[in-house]
Specification:
The structure is a single chain. Helix content is 52%, strand content 8%. It is an alpha+beta fold. It folds into 2 domains: 90 residues, Glutaredoxin (3-Layer(aba) Sandwich), CATH 3.40.30; 112 residues, Glutathione S-transferase Yfyf (Class Pi), Chain A, domain 2. It starts with a strand and ends in a 5-residue tail after the last helix. The mean pLDDT is 96.
């Protein structure tokens, strides 16, 4: 059985859980609490799986895969149905570019170790940290919103009428946006896509509150 080392509220972990649920792949969660015990991701045993000390990590037999987008691509290649990438090259490029706009440009700036450094090195208080998060979330999502609003490939979901890797990145990022009190009024396309996704059982089963077993 696949083994997913994750944290319930991690956006990157959330993406992978959606994919596993969408593809109906049985998996076992191994919680890695990012705050407890000084951060369980720094424990030597976990570092042997993931030298970066981040989540998620997927274990498939002897194969160990860190990095959420690499995991998503692996699952797509090994279990192509139901698909999370379009059949055409142009469609795949668009979906990947939307996913990367969130996973590589927007989400990393809210990473727990980035936010910790704002406090430790620069004296940012909780209010300043929240303002930092809101700024970069709204900046990143605003760019994606413009694309969804103006590109004809947008459908019920980010690309066409079925979920793709882009939607798997959008939904967790909007969860973070709501958590940090972002103004979503300027993001009608993204809110619409999120709401469409959350009508699907796979997305519901992957939600942080649906899997949380550890406090905090």
């Amino acid at each position: 059985m696949l083994e997913l080392h994750d944290y319930w509220r991690s956006s990157a972990s959330y993406r992978v859980r959606i994919a596993l649920e969408w593809k109906r792949l049985p998996f076992e969660r191994v919680p890695v609490h990012l705050l407890r015990d000084g951060g369980q991701q720094y424990a030597p045993a976990y570092r042997t799986l993931n030298a970066q000390a981040i989540v998620p990590t997927l274990v498939d037999g002897e194969l160990v895969i860190p990095q959420s987008l690499a995991i998503l691509e692996y699952l797509e290649e090994t279990h192509p149905e139901p698909p999370l990438l379009p059949r055409d090259a142009a469609g795949r490029a668009r979906v990947r570019s939307l996913a990367l706009a969130i996973a590589c440009e927007t989400h990393p700036l809210q990473n727990t170790r980035v936010i910790a450094q704002l406090g430790e090195r620069f004296g940012a208080n909780d209010e300043a940290k929240a303002a930092w998060n809101r700024h970069f979330i709204e900046l990143g999502l605003g760019a994606v919103e413009q694309r969804l609003a103006h590109e004809p490939a947008t459908g019920r979901f980010c690309h066409g009428d079925a979920p793709t890797l882009a939607d798997l990145c959008v939904v967790p990022q909007l969860y973070n946006a709501a958590r940090w009190g972002c103004d979503l009024s300027a993001l009608p396309q993204l809110v619409r896509v999120r709401d469409e996704c959350l009508t699907l059982a796979a997305f519901q089963r992957a939600m942080p509150e649906a899997v949380q077993t550890e406090a905090g």
